[in-house]
Amino acid sequence: MPRMTAATPTPAWHEDALCAQTGPEFFFPEPGSSVSEAKRICASCPGRAACLDHALRHDERFGVWGGLSEKERLALRRSRR
């Protein structure tokens, strides 16, 4: 889930994002905690693809974005090279 500031415009996909309705604790868990609940929520989110695209374009390093963990996004970026 993006961390927005007052100066950051909210992406259109964020309005319907389930993470915005759930809260950050699932998407930014403590190290070693499970991300399965975040992935379950992402799986049914209409903004999942846009969220993942945002995370990859902005090199988001922490949390679950678009249904993928930090390690999964890193592996995806490496496979695209």
UniProtKB/TrEMBL annotation:
Binds 1 [4Fe-4S] cluster per subunit. Following nitrosylation of the [4Fe-4S] cluster binds 1 [4Fe-8(NO)] cluster per subunit. The Fe-S cluster can be nitrosylated by nitric oxide (NO). Upon Fe-S cluster removal intramolecular disulfide bonds are formed. The keyword Magnesium does not apply. GO terms for molecular function: 4 iron, 4 sulfur cluster binding; dinitrosyl-iron complex binding; DNA binding; metal ion binding; protein-disulfide reductase [NAD(P)H] activity. One of its GO terms (biological process) is negative regulation of DNA-templated transcription. Transmembrane segments: none annotated. Residues 18-75 form the 4Fe-4S Wbl-type domain. GO terms for cellular component: cytoplasm. Pfam families: Whib. InterPro entries: 4FE4S_WBL, Whib. Its cofactor is [4Fe-4S] cluster. The keyword 4Fe-4S applies. This is Transcriptional regulator WhiB. Belongs to the WhiB family. Keywords: 4Fe-4S, Cytoplasm, Disulfide bond, DNA-binding, Iron, Iron-sulfur, Metal-binding, Transcription, Transcription regulation. It is found in: Cytoplasm. The gene is whiB. Acts as a transcriptional regulator. Probably redox-responsive. The apo- but not holo-form probably binds DNA. Its main location: cytoplasm. [4Fe-4S] cluster binds at residues 19, 42, 45, 51.
